[in-house]
Every structure is written in C-alpha cells, then in structure tokens.
Amino acid sequence: MPDNDLAPNMPSREVTISASNITEGGVSLRGQWVNFALSDSIDVTPGGDMVARTSQKITLDSAGNGRIRLPVYDTSHGKGWEHDKDWAIIVTTSWGSSKAIRVPAGSGSIPLSHLPAVRPLSRSEMRYAVTGVGITVGVGSTPGQASGTATLDGGILRLGLTVPPSGPHTHPTGDITGLASALADLKLTKGAPAGANFNTYYTDAHSGHWYFSAAAAAGMSGLPAGFTDKAGSILVLGSPSRVATQIYFPYGYFSTEPLRRTITTIASNTWSPWEPIGGTPDPVTPFTRGTMPLNSNINDWWGTDRNGLWHMTISSSNTVTGLPDGMQGRNGQLLVLASSLGVSTQMYFPYAYYGGGPMIRQTTNAGTHTWSDWAALGGTPTSSTGSGPWTQHTMRQTRFMSAMNGPISTGKKAAVALRFDHGLLNFRDKVLPLVKARGIKVSQAYNPRNWHYPENAGVTATDLNSWVAAGDVEIWNHSASHQGAETEEELYTQIVTGLAEVEAELPAAAGKVWGWCPPGVSTGDYMGYQDGRTPEGWDSYAGNLILQRHAVASGYLSGTQIRPLDGTIRDGQGHYTMDSLSVATIKGYIDTAISRKAGVQLMLHPSQLDLAGKLTTAQFTEILDYIVAKRTAGDLVTLSPYQLTVADSRF
C-alpha cells in the first residue's frame, strides 16, 4: 500500500507485527510470515479507480517483527474506501491462525494484536437489521377491543397497538371461561407473601396450599431446617380453634419426602418438630465418603459418624494423623467400621504401587477409645512402608551396570560426556557430523510426540534409529511431549507411556533406554517433582514413576554438575547447558573436571545453534577441538552420558 502522499485519495495506516516464541521446542520465528488479503475488490475514488482483490505477505525478521501499510475502514467521509460497502482484510499466519480485521483511521502506527476479529454484515443482514423502534398505540371504542400491527421500515421496527378504553369495566359472568374453577383455585392455592411466618399460620383463614420460590424462602420463618433456601410449598389445615396441621412439600429435585408438624399447645401456639410423614427413619450413612478432610486425626475416628470408605491423595495424606508409619504423603484408602458402643475397626489400604498390603487396627478400650497397633491384615507381618519403586530401580541398575560392562576405567583421568536435547534438524546437519568425525558417542533426549515441530523438520524416526544402530547415538527418555503434567494420569502418560513410545519407534534402542532427563516445562512442577532439584522431589509420584522405570535419572541437584567418578550410579546429577555460555566458560568447566579427575556432562539444544546471542557452529567446533586436544594430551577421556554414570577414575 503506498503512502498517503503518493495516493491522497487512499487513506491508510501503518500496522506493526510483533511475535514471540515462548515455548522450548515450539515454532521458530525465523522465516515465519503473516499474509494480508482483501476480502473483495474495493473502489478508491468516485472516478472509478479500483483496488483489486489482492494480498501481501510480510516475512518476519529473526526477532519476530514486521510492518505493513493497510487501507483504513472508518474515515471522516464514510467507511474508508467504498464507503457504501462493507469489506475486511483477511490476516493469515504461517503458524495456522486466521482472522478478518478492519483498520481504524489514525496517524500513528497500530499493533496488529490490537485489531479484533470482525465479520462484516451481509447486504441481506443490513437490510433487515433493526436500527430503531417505533410504537403506535390506539384506544378501542368498546371493552375488549384490541389489535396491533408491526412493520419493518428501513431497519426500523414499527409496532401499532390498539388497547381497550381506560376506566372500570363490567362483564357478564357468562363471558368468563372457567369461573367456577378459578374461584376454587383462589381458595386452595396461594402464593406465600414475602417474609411469611408460617409459625403463625394456624387458623381457617390461613388454610390453603402456599407455594414459594427459593429466593422467597430465604426471607421466611417456620420452614424445616435445611430448606430455608429451597423452593417448596406448605399445605396449611387450620381451624378457628387453632388446632392445625402443616405439611411441607419439598421441590422434588431435593429427593426428600414430605414433612409434617402439628400444634401441640393451643394456648401458646407451639408446634411439634418437623418430621417425615412416615415417621423418622434411622440415619443412613453413605458407604463411600469421598476425600478425607485435611488435618484429620483418625485416632478420633471411632464413632459411627465416620463410618465408610475414605480416599486420601498425596497432598491430603501429608496432613493426616494416625496413619500407619510411612504412609504419609501417599495415596491410600481408609475403611472405618464403628458402632455406637465405641467398638471400632479401621482398615488401611495402600495404593498398590507403593508395595505392602492392607493394615488393620481395632479399639482395645471402648471407654478410652485406645487403638491397637497397626498390623498386617490376615496376620502376616509386613513392612507398612513397602519397597515403593526402589526394588525395581535397584534391579534395573544391576542390569544397567552389567550391560555397560561397568565400572568403566578412565585410566585415572577426567571424563567429558555430551548430551543433546531434541532439535533433530540441526543435530543431523550441524552436530552429528562434527562429533562422529572426532569419535565421540553422544546422547539424544527427544520427545516421540514432537516430530511435527519445525526444529525436527525432515528427520524421521527411521533416521534416528539408524544413528542408534550405528553406535553413534544413545537415547534417554525426555517425556512424551515436553509438556507440563499436573495429574497422576498426565504424569503417567509423559513418563511411562512416553518411554514405551520411544522404544516402539526406535527398535535399535528397545530395552536400552536406561535413563531419564527431566524436560523443562513452562507450567507446573510435575506435582512436586520440580525437575529433581530437591531430595523431596524424588519421593513424589513423578519421582517414584521415574525411579521405577529407569536405571539412572539425571536432574538438577545443586552442586552436581562436576561429578565424582567412582563407578557408583548416582541419580539427580546435573549438567552445564552450553546454549548461551561463552567458549571460555565452557573450557573452564572442562579444566575443572581435569583438575579433580572428575566427570562433567555438557548439554546443548541443537535448535539454538547460530541464533542471536547463542553458541555458533564455529564456537561449538572450537569446544570439540579443545576436548579432543585434552584427550590427545592424556588429560581426559570422552564417554557417552550412560558410560559417564558408571565411570571410575580411581584406576
């Protein structure tokens, strides 16, 4: 669109675009575009100039910015160009969104994000759109005469009404349909007045069926307890002597039978309590009671009011007193079987994942409500804490150590390992050729559900599997999709299902995905796991799933980036992320490991290579050459990340 000084009869305005990439592994901004297209051709001047229905594509720069001059819609001489016609500009982005906009008149730039989506009215809609209302009222000449008219005139709805004349009117009773029935209803069915006090409704004048809404009930007196804010009705059977009965009918939705009460003392107009018409039933306690309240002390749960099956979540069980040892902070259920005599039994059912069996205890003194110790249900003593994930984790470590032929000797030297997280396009084109040429086996932590990301464009599971089969790459579980998870079901999908999907699409790695690398997520903390930054996080549901399904798990425990090499597998150890580090800083970490005869793992997101402010391919090559030079000098060895976990520099 040309500037105003080139086409003064074409009012326009500059629109700016600013896009941001806020998710790791999401859409790259480089090469993204926004397309602007007219929805129809539009007239420019009365002389017949016309702008064809065309489009303009704006390619964003590396920072996600762009600008374009567009025709405005609402100017002083109408709606912009072709003021008698509705039109819009269709905006389409390369990442899949589309909307129609109109640009308001103005002299300054306006961001695209400030322009809301619109849909212009069709000509048919404009023709019948109501833009005003006109009403005509006429008075008839005889009682009962009434008529009306309605017309649509140029978008204005015009109503004409004829009503009966004002003043009192009389009608023969024969003209009134259903008079007898109406009189009968008038006596029996009545709307209760606002603020009614049913405690005073006991005479024959109050007799009838009174109904009321939930809102009206809130201001009334004398209703049954628990129904003071609910719709219902009361049948009053009064008498001149005030011998009266009332029957309350609840709205059927509340599933309660009618309640009854009577005057028990005429002199004081005292009512009996409300009770079911059929008598007061024994109280019924539901078997399933729901989630146990926070801060419950089940040592006090010996009464019948606590009978039933209660469920505990990880967070709620942390606040409960009286559970078997080791069951705090874990899912479980409690069955309470109590009697009115205080003879009570409690059964605890742990979530089977944690190991151990059901536990039982009983009151040993009904008077003092003293409990026996928790014991295994069935009489066979077992540990109430169970083995949790540790048995499987230990067995997997044993298999892993054997598979790696560990411990692996470094010849009393330091060791360096390289890890790469997804970004398979740059990994294939920029990383893999460099590390293969220098004889360095590396790891790939990728997500099996993210093949559609631009950072993986053109690379297939078959490609990745071939690199594994060739011995150039090892695979670590990095979650199914690199997304946050805030329920046990979501965590299971990300950790366990993700692992299964990796091994299914990479046959060469099946049975060899020994390790877990926590993904950085933008929302949540994996229900307390927190990327494995604290010891407590590893005792969370996510931490237990990870340990149960893997032989080794990396993390972010503080101070573990430089790790000891003694052949012992350690979980939660950290790494240095090279994306934004200087070459000098990275070389310094390598020198520190050399001085301690320790290990260091360096990680890189290949998708970040050569971006503004990030490590370049040339700098990455310089780091690789520095590692090879130190290896040639006998200062260190290069290992894969799996080999690093079982390395020993003592021999």
Descriptors:
TIM Barrel; disordered N terminus; 12 helices; single chain; Immunoglobulin-like; 7-stranded mixed β-sheet; 25% strand; 651 residues
Summarize the structure.
This protein has 651 residues and is an alpha/beta fold. The protein is built from twelve helices and 37 strands.
> Strand content of the residues, in percent?
25-35%
Structural class: alpha/beta
Name of the CATH class of the largest domain: Alpha Beta
Fourth-tier CATH superfamily name of the largest domain: Glycoside hydrolase/deacetylase
Give the averaged pLDDT, no decimals: 85
Alpha-carbon distance between the termini? 74 Å
At the fold tier of CATH, the topology name of the largest domain is TIM Barrel
Low-confidence stretches: 1-7, 380-386
Q: What does the largest sheet look like?
A: 7 strands, mixed
Shape category = flat
Number of domains: 3
Helix content: 10-25%
Tally of extended strands?
Answer: 37
Supply Rg.
40 Å
How many H/I helical runs?
A: 12
